[in-house]
Write a structure and sequence with these properties.
Layout: H1 10-21, H2 27-36, H3 43-46, E1 62-70, E2 80-87, E3 93-99, H4 104-108, E4 117-120, H5 141-148, E5 152-155, H6 163-182, H7 188-206, H8 224-230, E6 233-238, E7 244-247, E8 250-254, E9 267-272, E10 278-282, E11 285-287, E12 289-293, H9 309-321, H10 331-334, H11 360-367
Parallel strand pairs: 1-4, 4-5
Antiparallel strand pairs: 1-2, 2-3, 6-9, 7-8, 8-12, 9-10, 10-11
């Protein structure tokens, strides 16, 4: 064992001894021998420990955020995601919200306060995994919005590092699910209306007092219109020579005016707001446009994250249920071609079979 199978597990080592050496040894017996010789460690011995991290000192200094995908309404409704914002210093729930799936729009439309920093996982809402992507800014839409608001975003290297929000997720999956059942709540709208009262009672029971009493949340000295422009999906798009651009499977055609005439070959800003509005701007000026929309669908071979898989499959199924395969017409059918019988022309042609239109009596009279 030490010479050939020192790095093998008990199960694989037992299989190799039987197949290659014709030695029959049970897996558990071999496991005990390997543990005695120091070739194998139990699961408890192999368990790794993480250095605990102290709480931050003040409220609003660090907010941990996460989305928990779970059957919150059990079998009364489909699974959905609960967005959880929890303060690191006090374990106080800052914000809870039920959404269909975890996405950039759901976070942008539910921002709360202006803390020093957010602490999240490596979900693509918060972090670009390939920083060398050509044409990109190296920053996600959520990260861009936080940068404009002077809020830092920090990504944890493991789930244990943001244990505060992970533990409260487990607590909510137990307590909140049962309370929703007792309240007979079975949809997202009613669930969101119930959450403020639940948060209040939860914070009274589990929140702790921080080391410092000052609040690190900062005031926002910007207008509502400016804040709306920040908390949206914003991208640059290239304008072709025909004053057209493409965004989200839509072909956008700019209306011709003195401002748009010179935009061919340049870039414009597209503002996609969470409420569904879409604006095209150039140097802050609003550009009128008309749009040709393509069918919205999850594209073939699309990369879908695990947290959005349920929502993506629901969209696919809805599209498949409403899809009817169109009959493919031939070129003859497209041209409305009608097949006719063969005709032989000539002055001496005599039909061998009388026409069906002629009555039988008339045919007999001609023969007579």
């Amino acid at each position: 064992m030490r010479a050939k199978y020192a790095d093998f597990g008990p199960s694989l080592a037992a299989e190799m001894l039987l197949s290659k050496h014709d030695l029959t040894v049970s897996r558990e017996t071999l496991r005990k021998w390997m543990m005695t010789e120091g070739l194998w460690r139990s699961r408890k011995q192999r368990r790794s420990f993480h250095q605990p991290r102290l709480r931050r000192e003040a409220f609003g200094e660090l907010i941990q955020i996460d989305g928990s995908d779970h059957r919150w309404f059990e079998d009364r409704a489909d699974a959905c995601t609960l967005l959880v914002f929890i303060d690191d210093a006090t374990s106080r729930l800052i914000h809870l919200q039920f959404v269909r799936s975890e996405s950039t729009d759901t976070y942008l439309s539910r921002a709360y306060g202006c803390p020093v920093a957010f602490y999240s996982d490596k979900h693509t809402v918060f972090r670009i995994n390939r920083s060398s992507t050509p044409g990109g800014t190296g920053m996600t839409q959520f990260g861009r919005a936080l940068a404009e608001l002077n809020i830092e975003i920090i990504c944890a290297n493991s789930s244990q590092a943001k244990g505060r929000v992970e533990r409260v997720n487990r607590t909510l999956q137990d307590r909140l699910v049962k309370e929703l059942r007792l309240a007979d709540i079975s949809n997202i709208e009613a669930g969101n209306a119930y959450l403020p009262g639940f948060m209040s009672s939860h914070n009274e029971r589990f929140a702790v007092t921080p080391l410092r009493t000052d609040d690190r949340h900062r005031p926002l000295c910007i207008s509502i219109d400016k804040l709306t422009d920040i908390l949206c999906h914003r991208e640059q798009r290239y304008v072709g020579s025909q004053l057209t651009l493409t965004y989200d499977r839509k072909r956008i055609i700019l209306e011709r005016n003195p401002t748009s005439e010179d935009l061919g070959g340049k870039y414009v800003d597209v503002y996609d707001f969470p409420d569904g509005r879409l604006e095209v701007r150039s140097k802050g000026l609003l550009l009128p446009y008309r749009i040709f929309s393509k069918d919205q669908r999850v594209s073939h071979t699309a990369i879908v994250e695990n947290k959005r898989l349920g929502h993506a499959l629901a969209l696919i199924k809805a599209r498949q249920d409403s899809h009817f395969e169109a009959k493919v017409k031939t070129n003859s059918e497209k041209g409305q071609y009608q097949k006719r019988g063969r005709q032989i022309y000539g002055p001496d042609y005599v039909p061998k079979i009388p026409s069906q239109a002629e009555p039988a009596s008339e045919t007999t009279a001609k023969e007579a």
